[in-house]
Amino acid sequence: MKRIATLLGVVLVSFIGVSRSAMAQVPASEESNPATETACMATTPVEQLALNAAKNEARQMAEFTNGGLTVYRAEPAMHGSVVNAPCEVVSPGLWRFTIRGGDPVAVSTEGVYTILSVVTVDNVSGAGRSVNLEYNGPIEDYEE
User: Any bridge partners for residue 118, and if so which?
Assistant: First the structure.
């Protein structure tokens, strides 16, 4: 009888865990960007590596410009897969990242962003790559 009760308990716990994960929703901040004509896409492993490196360089530029990690954190999309990054192709060979960020606690716990950084990165590999900060300031002051 104890075995049956134990087995039923394990099954019930497993069922609850599965049903909870099935009902989980992805937060808006972690949803992937829809594919558009200007979305950054990589079709080969070499392009994927270059695009991921460009994403990291853009995020690091925003972090450095805004005082470092103790006072600034970029949005979650800039820390994960490059597919989710706020990126667009400006022209062949040039990517633009529009990065929201702000106080580390406000960004990570509340999803509150106060600073916008717009960074362009050319897709040249190696030492020839350039990273340029086009805008850095309050989100509400940015005009495209």
Answer: 98, 135
